[in-house]
Each structure stands twice: as C-alpha cells, then as structure tokens.
Specification:
Layout lengths: L1 E4 L2 E4 L4 E6 L11 E7 L5 E7 L7 E3 L2 E3 L1 E7 L1 H11 L15 H6 L2
Antiparallel strand pairs: 1-2, 3-4, 4-5, 5-8, 6-7
Length: 109
C-alpha cells in the first residue's frame, strides 16, 4: 500500500514494520481492523491498515460507512504510544527509532 500525503510518500512495503496493533474484534465484526505501525526511510512514522465499517479505516459514503484501507501519518509521540499499547518489546525500541533510554521510561505506568 502506498499513499502520497502533503507531498510525502508512505510505502508500507519499503518501510520498517515496527509492530502490529491488536484488534480485539473478530474479522467478522464491523469494528475489526488489521493495523500496522511503520517507520519509513525518511524517519516518518505512519499507520497502515484495513478494517470494517466501524474501524478507523472505514470509508464514509452517501449510503453509510463501508470497510476500507488506508495510511495515516502520525507523530513520533503517537507512534511511541501505539508501540507501547501494542506491547513492543524493550529490545526493539532502539530499532524502531525510539532510542534505548526512551523505551523503558515511557513503558512505566
């Protein structure tokens, strides 16, 4: 999946997959999603995925929402929060661009 947003290209297949976000719904649910957090070659974080008509990826139509897919650029702070939510292991924080010190500090509740 590739998308150009504000002149920046986000291409999932050429980016580092950091973590898959958990979906607490079965794939038969309208709330189901398959969402992944990525880091591209330019150091930009983004979410890419697909999902049901009640997920973040839904597309609104004149007849209601339908399942769809998409890419959404996010900030480093948001990426860190998603990584934490998804349970990214501490040893993978540096590889994901968050740094060695940053990971443990942000993982404490």
């Amino acid at each position: 999946m590739t998308k150009v947003i504000n002149g920046n290209t986000y291409r999932a297949r050429n980016s580092l997959l950091i973590v898959t976000l958990p979906s607490h719904f079965p794939d038969t649910s309208n709330k189901w999603h398959d969402t992944h957090l990525y880091l591209n070659r330019n150091g930009a974080y983004f979410l890419a995925g697909k999902g049901g008509s009640l997920s973040r990826w839904a597309k609104n139509t004149p007849h209601g929402a339908i399942p769809d897919e998409g890419i959404e650029p996010i900030s480093k702070n948001d990426a860190l929060a998603y990584a934490k939510y998804a349970g990214l292991s501490l040893d993978k924080f540096a590889r994901a661009g968050f740094g060695r010190v940053e990971g443990p500090r942000h993982l404490e509740y």
